[in-house]
Amino acid sequence: MLAVCRVQNHRISAIMKPSFLLYRRRLSMLKNPMNIVKLVALFLSCALLYAIHLANPTFFPELWQVLKSGDLLATAEYIRSFGSWAMFFSFWLVLFVNAIGFPPAIIFSTANTLIFGIVPGIVLSVIAETVGVTISFLLLRFLFRASAEQLIAKHPRLKKVDAYSGKNGFTVMLIARMVPYIPSALLNALGALSAISLRDYVISSFVGKFPSTAIEAIIGHDTVLKNPDPTRLVLVCIAAVLLVIGAWYYEKRVEKKADAMQKILDEHAKMQKKKPAK
């Protein structure tokens, strides 16, 4: 009888132990203020989506049907149906799409050129996309950068890659953003997990998105209207080269000033060490 009781107790403890450990792990996570903030941010995001649904229950179903159809003219008409609020709605729509990384922003950048004209549509799309990818960058870095740093600290090769991304992140992100049709969500995630600064990320994304968004939107615009104009693409390529040269020159000037300031600080620190103690 005693042996049976011991076996039963052992089975019960074996069942309860994983549950207890899971409970302790969740409790320790809640004790961390940053984890609580992350949960609050997630809750507020869900609450915002639910509030939109309450305000207009047909919004998400209608938007889904338009996107599922793949009809760019229908998408443009849907945005145009908001009347004087069409530009405002399109801005937030492009922002939201770039923040979550789905669906492809080319759908809305093309629609913007059909509604507002090529130049205004591209400018609107680039600004909204830049704000969207910046929000995504901040959220992803807030949620996952600490975990990435712990992983990087354990692997020397990852340390080198991380250091490289911090020093050359501007150039890498600029080139990546300039390439059309690369998924924005991928670049958002890579940027957030890397050591690139927020300033470098925003500037490189803004400058890089001009040529890529313009090329995507113009090709989509001309395809829908069946009116190709190679001259526009040539002008976009020329503008892209000028933008890259300007951004590269600006970044080099900033780096030069930072290096000069660091040199002054290092020399000052050496002089302080050489001074005899009183």
Main traits of this protein?
278 residues; mainly alpha; 11 helices; 87% helix; 0% strand; globular
End-to-end CA span: 82 Å
Please work out how many helical segments DSSP would assign: 11
From N to C, what is the helix and strand string? HHHHHHHHHHH
Indicate the overall shape: globular
Tally of DSSP β-strands? 0
Low-confidence stretches: 14-18
Largest sheet: none
User: What is Rg?
Assistant: 26 Å
In terms of structural class, how would the helical and strand content be classed? mainly alpha
Q: What share of the residues does DSSP label as strand, in percent?
A: under 5%
Mean of pLDDT? 76
Helical residues, percent:
over 70%
Overview of this protein structure:
By secondary structure, the chain is mostly helical. Helix 4 crosses helix 6, helix 6 crosses helix 10 and helix 8 packs antiparallel against helix 11. The N and C termini lie far apart (82 Å). The chain is globular. About 2% of the residues have low confidence. The chain has a domain of 183 residues.
Describe the structure in brief.
The protein is mainly α and 278 residues long. 87% of the residues lie in helices and 0% in strands. The chain is globular, with a radius of gyration of 26 Å.
Per-chain topology:
Blueprint (H helix, E strand, L loop, with lengths): L1 H30 L1 H23 L3 H11 L2 H9 L5 H15 L5 H11 L1 H36 L2 H23 L5 H10 L4 H28 L4 H45 L4
Helix pairs in contact: 4-6, 5-6, 5-7, 6-7, 6-10, 7-9, 7-10, 8-10, 8-11, 10-11
InterPro entries: TMEM64, VTT_dom
Keywords: Cell membrane, Membrane, Transmembrane, Transmembrane helix
Subcellular location: Cell membrane
